[in-house]
Structure formats: C-alpha cells, structure tokens
Automatic annotation (TrEMBL):
InterPro entries: Cyt_c-552/4, Multihaem_cyt_sf. Residues 50-132 form the Cytochrome c-552/4 domain. Pfam families: Cytochrome_C554. It comes from Nannocystis punicea. Signal peptide: none annotated. This is Multiheme c-type cytochrome. Gene3D superfamilies: Flavocytochrome C3, Chain A (1.10.1130.10).
Amino acid sequence: MKTLRTILTLIPLACGGGGSPSGPDELLSDELSMPREPTVALDGFASAEQCGLCHEAHYLEWSTSGHAYAMIDPVFRAFVAVRQEHYGGKQDMFCLQCHSPIGTRGGDIVPGFDFADLQPITLEGVTCESCHKVASLARPYNSGHVLDPDGPMRGTIAEPIISAAHESQFSPLHGAASFCAGCHDLREVSGLVLERPYGEWQGSPAAAAGVQCQGCHMPSYEGPAVVGGPTRRLHRHTWIGAGIPLLEGFLTAEEKASLRAEVKRLLASAARVDITADTSVRAGDVVDLFVAVTNNIAAHNFPTGSTFNRQAWVEVVVRDSDGRIVFATGTLDAGGEPSGSSLAAPGAPELLRLGSILVDERGEPVLFPWRAAEHVSNALGPLRERVFRLRVPTGRAARGPLSAEARILFRAFSPTALRALGLDEYAAGLEIHEVSRDRIRVELRPP
Ligand code: HEC
Ligand code: HEC
Ligand code: HEC
Ligand code: HEC
Ligand code: HEC
C-alpha cells in the first residue's frame, strides 16, 4: 500500500506539471480506487432501479440528485475529455474514481475509455451500492472507501427487519461525516488540495456540536424505509447543494423548479452581507463603505467543495439621488463575468471574490486543475466574518443621498469556462443566485 501511495504522489513531479507520460509503467494507479486489474465484478452490483422496487422513496429522491448525475454531467465529461487527451489515457481512472467507484474498480474504466461504451451500472455514477456496500474507510479523501460487494447492505437502521432481498447491517460509519469525506475531499495527483469540505468541518463549531454532513444534506423525516415496512427515521437522498443539473431531460420541469427553490433556500441560509458607512459625508469627499460578509454555516467554508469552478462574489453598486451609478464592483461585464480591476479595466474597484482560483507557476489563472501549481482561496471559514473597505469618491457637485447596495452572488460555473470547454449551449442557462442583500442611504452635506 505504501509503495503505491508513493507512486501516486511521485508521478506528477515526473510529468513536470502536465507533460504526457509515456510507457505502460506510468499508468496512474492505486490499489484501492484505481486498480490496474479489476478488484470487484461489475455484475456483483445491482442497479438502483432494482432497489427502487422496495425502497421507492430513496430511489425517487436519489434519481434527481447530483449523485445520479455524476457520470452523465456534460461539464464533467468535457473536463475528462481534455484530461484524456492531455495524458494520452494514462490517468483516465483518476477523475472517475469517485464519480463511478464501481466502474473504476470493476474494470469498465480503462485507458482511453469512451463514455459511449460504458456499462449501465458505471453510468449510474454514485449509485446506491457505491455507498451501501461500503465496509470501511481507508482514507478520508480520493475515493477512500473499501467496497464489499458480497457483504450486507449497510445503513443506520439499528435493527433492520429481515428481507429476502439482502442482509442488512447497522453501520455507524454511514451516519458520520467521514463517510462523505471519502469522495468529497479531493487532492490532485500533484497533491494540490482541490476540495475539502470534510477538512473544513473538522475543528468547526458543527463538528464540536456533533452535527455531521448528513444533518444538513440528508435531513430526516418519518416514513417507511421499505414499501409496507414500519415507520423509521429516514434521511433525504436528494443531497441538495449549490448545483442545478444543466443537462436537458435529467429532471422534469417540475423537478427542476422544486430543486431550484431548494437550492435558493439553502444558499439564502449560507451567508449574509451588511453594509455600513459614515452617516454624513460632504460632497467631494471619499465615502468609506464597510461591507461585512459572514458565513452562517457552522460546518464548512462558504463557498465549499469545487470552489474553483464556482463563482461567489460581492456586488456593490452606489447610486446618486438621480439613480446614476457612481461606483460599482461585481456587476457583469460584456462577457458576462463579474467586473473588477483587471488589466482590461485598470483602476476599477477590486472584485470582492469569495471563491477560489487555480493558478500556474507564473500566477496565471488556469481552468484545468492538473495544470495548477497553487489553489488560492478567499472562502470564509465556518461562522467567520470578513469586512471589505471600499473607498467611493464623490464629486463636489454630487447630489445626495447616495444609495449603496451590496449583494452576495453565487453562480455554479463561469460562462467563460463553459465556453472554453465547448459548452456554449449551457452558458446561457447559468443562473445567478442572490445569497444576501443589504442597502443603506448616505446623506451628502454640501461641500
Ligand atoms: C475525490 C473524489 C473526486 C474525484 C477524484 C474527482 N471528483 Fe469531480 N466531484 C467530486 C465531488 C464530491 C463533486 C461535488 C462537489 C461540489 O459540488 O462542490 C464533484 C464535482 C465535479 C464537477 C462539477 C459538477 C457540476 O455539474 O456541478 C466537475 C466538473 C468535476 N467534478 C470534474 C472532475 C474532474 C475533471 C476530475 C478529475 C480531475 C474529478 N472531478 C475528480 C468528487 C471527485
Ligand atoms: C425485496 C425488497 C428489497 C429490495 C429489492 C431491496 N431491499 Fe433494502 N431493505 C429491504 C428491507 C425489508 C429492509 C429493512 C427495512 C426496515 O427495517 O425498515 C431493507 C433495508 C435496507 C437498508 C438499511 C440497512 C440498515 O441496517 O440501515 C439499506 C441501506 C438498503 N436496504 C439498501 C438497499 C439497496 C441499495 C438495494 C438495491 C441493491 C435494496 N436495498 C434492495 C428490502 C429490500
Ligand atoms: C450546518 C449545515 C451544514 C452542514 C453540517 C454541512 N453543510 Fe454542506 N452546505 C451547507 C450550506 C448552507 C451549503 C450552501 C452554501 C455553499 O455552497 O457553500 C452547503 C453546500 C455544500 C456543497 C455544495 C458546494 C458547491 O458549491 O457545489 C457540498 C458539496 C457540501 N455542502 C458538502 C458538505 C459536506 C461533505 C459536509 C460534511 C463534512 C457538509 N457539507 C456539512 C450546509 C451544511
Ligand atoms: C452517497 C451515498 C448514498 C447513496 C448513493 C445512497 N445512499 Fe442510502 N443512505 C446513505 C446514508 C449516509 C444513509 C444514512 C444517513 C444517516 O443515518 O444519517 C442512508 C440511508 C439509507 C436507508 C435507511 C433509511 C434512511 O433513510 O435512513 C435506505 C433504505 C437507503 N439509504 C437506501 C438507498 C437506496 C435504495 C439508494 C439508491 C436509490 C441509496 N440509498 C443511495 C447514503 C447513500
Ligand atoms: C462515492 C462517492 C461519493 C460519496 C460517498 C458521497 N458523495 Fe456527494 N457527490 C459525489 C460526486 C461525484 C458529486 C458530484 C456529481 C456531479 O454533479 O457531477 C457529489 C455531489 C454531492 C452534492 C451536490 C453538490 C452540488 O453542487 O449541488 C452534495 C450536497 C453531496 N454530494 C453531499 C454528500 C454527502 C452529505 C455525502 C455523505 C453522506 C456524500 N455526498 C457522499 C460523490 C460522493
């Protein structure tokens, strides 16, 4: 195990930040989650649809979730296609090890694989048995789960009733945050940490209070775990996050509308903005605006997860008494990106970015994580507050009162990034969610 882990971390250095490895020995592998030879049989796993015959509610919820979407997601597929080309197939298991642990360990994901040739169970992505056939956790990142296809179905019902379909077993691991960590904490081959909601959770106020990921992302309700069974404390299998599937047809219009409402509700609970200023200023002075941003989540950063793909920022717009904009940051530019100071707009107010960016050795932003040397994050820690000070110049002729409005905005992807991936058709469908908003009036005394 130790030698294989060493290989995992040494290969990227040998590749020198992105060159194509050559020769069969350089196939990127790992005994647990990216084995050279299959360690499980694909036909040892059942389709979610079969589970749905008895576990109706769980099946219906799962089918609308990101977990069911993990392998058909066009954004995922577009990234994988670029990586396949870049490494000539040698690293093809890397991106698939969490999006389809069964397909990757079962020999369906091979160097140079084509999504069109994959087995149905692989395309089910994070399907029922990729979680319920987990026996233990070898590491809290990079698909660290130990799968046991011949074992019982594990869950958190302490005394499950006997079923002819499968054996059941109580598993405390399934009720713990570390269970999610196996896939939600992600390190690139280079060792660069890309996603770490679990790392953020450890040491958070939520962890101290014993609140696990499931407590927020799998809220409980009463109902039968199986058609006709006794009433249990069930856990929602919708896993609401910040994403809304872009692929047409994955959700019905009704499902999409209800997911959108849930995502908006979750995001509205995530963070808050408060804006303050000197209450009385003379026209011609510089007004100091203080924009305080607070992460309301006790469990992890805002934003969290794939923050380098996500966009979270603060938009601030100041208008004079005629409604004319006298100052703005974070409004959309012609390309649909939040504006702020850049080479294109020198001297403009800085963009108040809350997400993260990946940069190469020269400090230039990069889209593909495997080309990144550094991950620079502005995300707010659990329950943390940050105050931005903005200096807004006013003219001597300016007429008050000024109105200043601040909004925290969130978007799942940058339209520029989607266009760079050849996904123009989805760029138009991206939605900007308002997380929080605050507004003040600033009186202006004559100069
Ligand atoms: C450690 C497990 C793991 C590995 C390995 C992994 N992912 Fe993911 N991926 C996830 C998780 C978990 C999410 C959801 C995170 C979130 O929404 O914040 C995700 C989300 C994504 C998304 C966003 C999906 C959407 O529509 O919102 C893309 C794109 C993606 N991954 C691409 C990749 C690529 C490319 C690779 C290989 C470089 C990769 N992933 C490797 C676990 C993994
Ligand atoms: C023929 C009906 C049937 C089918 C098909 C079925 N199950 Fe079950 N399952 C049950 C019954 C009955 C229970 C016990 C429910 C209870 O005690 O309330 C159960 C319990 C469970 C539990 C809870 C275990 C625990 O101790 O917490 C999980 C998880 C589970 N099933 C997953 C699955 C998955 C995944 C599939 C598909 C591969 C599946 N089941 C297929 C009938 C079925
Ligand atoms: C106290 C409630 C709470 C707990 C506990 C919690 N989360 Fe979250 N989570 C949220 C909220 C609110 C959001 C939406 C804001 C955001 O995206 O940061 C969110 C968003 C997410 C997202 C989507 C991020 C994105 O932009 O795609 C992922 C993935 C996630 N959480 C994973 C986890 C994991 C893993 C754990 C456990 C280690 C966890 N969460 C624990 C409240 C919680
Ligand atoms: C991403 C992992 C994951 C996937 C995929 C998943 N489950 Fe679960 N499931 C869990 C966890 C975790 C729990 C226990 C949550 C807790 O106790 O906090 C659970 C609980 C259950 C239970 C026990 C009753 C309950 O609601 O607590 C059943 C039955 C079940 N799942 C069936 C299914 C079926 C059927 C599918 C596929 C249609 C499925 N699960 C997909 C993680 C998963
Ligand atoms: C076997 C790997 C795996 C496990 C285990 C797993 N996840 Fe995920 N999860 C993923 C992947 C991959 C995605 C992203 C799918 C996509 O959109 O492409 C995801 C997406 C999500 C999202 C949606 C994020 C968004 O942007 O909307 C949430 C929320 C989430 N998972 C929560 C959890 C929680 C909570 C647990 C633990 C109970 C868990 N997951 C366990 C792999 C996993």
